[in-house]
Amino acid sequence: MHRRIMAPGALAAASLMLAIPASAASLSPGAPGIGDPYYPAYGNGGYDVSHYDLRLKYQPATDELAGTATLLAKTTQDLSRFNLDFLLDVSEVRVNGAKASFATSGEHELEITPKKALAKGTPLTVVVRYRGVPSTKEAYGFNAWLRTSDGGVAAGEPEGAWWWFPSNDHPLDKATYDVSVQVPDGTQFISNGTLQSTSSRAGWTRYNWRSNKPQATYLATFAAGRFDVTTGTSESGIPVINAYSKDLGDRAGAARASIERTGEIADWLSEYFGPYPYNALGGYVPNTNTGYALETQTRPFYSPSNFANGSNTSVVVHELAHQWWGDLVSVKKWKDIWINEGFARYAQWLWSEREGEGTAQEIADYVYASRSADDAFWTVKPGDPGPENQFHIAVYDRGALALQALRNEIGDDAFFAILKGWPAKYAYGNASVADFVRYAEEVSGKPLAALFDTWLFQPSKPGAPAARSASIAKSAVEQPKSWKKIAATNEVHGH
């Protein structure tokens, strides 16, 4: 605030200004980004979404998607205008029942100006009617929609929602979901959570899915196509729904042999990470030509190429570990990606140990010894890799190596207490690398800042003294039996 002396002639105008409520004087547009330094335009400021209700119709033959999104939210500031992240063509917007004006800006912003300004703390019901062909829409020079021969798929990180529903697209704003999509008879629709109902009429079938726990926007998934669907229940009692494209060819058997073990693997992971946090399990494999997989909440997305060399339970372990590390506890900012990827990779190392194909220690020794000090791998800092290296292999392998160093430093009791306690402490919320360092120190009772700095934040290979101190590569190193299976998942998030 800048103080100034007011001239007597301005007193009348000043008295009028004083009559304006303070909230009106502070009205301003919500920020067009949520404040993430890696992706400044992602997400939005000024409101928080609690629920998305999506009622859509999709035509696989033309890739046209049309329908209505209803967002339940609350303002977090006095708002004159706010943004949603979206790319399809909007025909109408209503805010709390009244028509609102709207316009597009930037690469992916839908600017909404309500008829009446909104005070902080106001409940919002935002209704957006829209249609469009997702495969024709680009932002920043790319299209994240996956067109298939029998439909379309949305499964992308760090973005993917823009191509099928308007949202506050950042992990900081989690919400619950009802996703209802109508497709032609003979086509199936797969999404997150539990299948509430299906109904058929006049050649169309509507699928109604519900996610009843907070879910980040990039973890919401859309998959329309011709699928073989299997159902079951894990030993712990969680319903399992898996779906496989009818067009997988000779990869179908390997995909099924891997993904049908989802319930078993989730139950095994719960021994390390605590109870499975959702009421649904599964996975799906559409006939895409991508190479990555994604931890879409409760029902991970897999590519056929993940099973090109046969069955691979290691990729299933990775995506299911994310249900705790990334989904239950999500990043505060995208620079905290190690919280997701380092731990999902370490889960693969633990699975290798279970399968008798190499211990976590042996794999850590191999990762350290197999890359020379001048390898560019060591220049990537898993604790803050930069947007260009967010999914670099170093975030995975060096990230997991840091966990083995931690385990050796604090001992198994404290280490596994951290693996189980962390998801419980931050359940359904967000946390950062700095939060994890503090939590590890709290549980172990040891100062750990120097260890994490060495293994996560220095752009160089930790030297021999640091490795010896962390009991890494202390003997001759052979390639573990599981290495090829683990390495086959190196591109699981290589967008």
From TrEMBL:
Keywords: Aminopeptidase, Hydrolase, Metal-binding, Metalloprotease, Protease, Signal, Zinc. It is an enzyme of class 3 (hydrolase). Pfam families: Peptidase_M1, Peptidase_M1_N. SUPFAM superfamilies: Leukotriene A4 hydrolase N-terminal domain (SSF63737), Metalloproteases ('zincins'), catalytic domain (SSF55486). It catalyses: Release of an N-terminal amino acid, Xaa-|-Yaa- from a peptide, amide or arylamide. Xaa is preferably Ala, but may be most amino acids including Pro (slow action). When a terminal hydrophobic residue is followed by a prolyl residue, the two may be released as an intact Xaa-Pro dipeptide. GO terms for molecular function: aminopeptidase activity. It comes from the Bacteria. This is Aminopeptidase N. It comes from Streptomyces coerulescens.
